[in-house]
Every structure is written in structure tokens, then in C-alpha cells.
Amino acid sequence: MKAKAARLGKGWLDRKLASQKFRKGFEEESQKLAIGEQLSRLRQEAGLTQAQVAKRTGTTASAISRYENAEYDRYELRTLQRFVRACGGRLDITLEPGPKTHRAA
To answer: Where are the alpha helices (DSSP H) in the chain?
Structure first.
């Protein structure tokens, strides 16, 4: 029963991702979710509470909570760096060209 549901779900998503507009929105939302999840995981693996990270970064626990929220989309590089350093981590940002990238000659 679960295998059938999984097949149906995958087919639906595949059909939706065929739309450029849907794919773009899906990728943007996935990226936001990934950032929040990574920040939360990093903090938890460091054994820190949101309040402890807030104190180390000079902000509030509610600001840390916002950064870990999948709906948040106003990340600032400086704040990300402080958050990650407060957890003993390393921030690495990778930019990759898309399939239709125009390259200068």
C-alpha cells in the first residue's frame, strides 16, 4: 500500500516539476528550508539552545528561532557567519552555474 502511494506521489511531483514556474518556486522553498534545517541541526549538534546561540551572537532567541524557520528568507551573510561560528561550525557557500548559463567568450 505504501509503495503504491509513493509511486503516485512521485508521479505528481514529477508532473508539477515539469512546469518552469513551479520548479523555480519549489527550488526556492527547498533552499530556504535547507538553510533553516542546517542551522537548527548545527546548533543542536553543538549542544546549544537558541538562547545560548543568541547570547554568543549578541541577538535574541527569537531572532535565532526566525533564522531556523523554513519560512524565513532574509538571511544576511554576516549574521549567518556569527551563527555558525557560535556553534563551532564553518560556513561554506557554493555557487553553481545552471544548465542554461551564458558564458562570456
So the answer is: 2-17, 20-45, 50-57, 61-68, 77-86
Note down pLDDT in tens along the chain; length 105 residues. 455 555 555 687 778 777 888 777 767 766 666 888 999 999 999 999 999 999 999 999 999 999 999 888 888 999 999 999 999 999 998 888 877 766 665
In CATH terms, the superfamily for domain 19-86 is lambda repressor-like DNA-binding domains (1.10.260.40)
58: left (phi over 0), alpha (psi -120 to 50) or beta: left
Both ends of the chain: CA-CA distance in Å? 54
Task: Classify residue 87 by its DSSP letter.
Answer: T
pTM over 0.70: no
- Are 80 and 36 in contact by the 8 Å Cβ rule? The answer is no
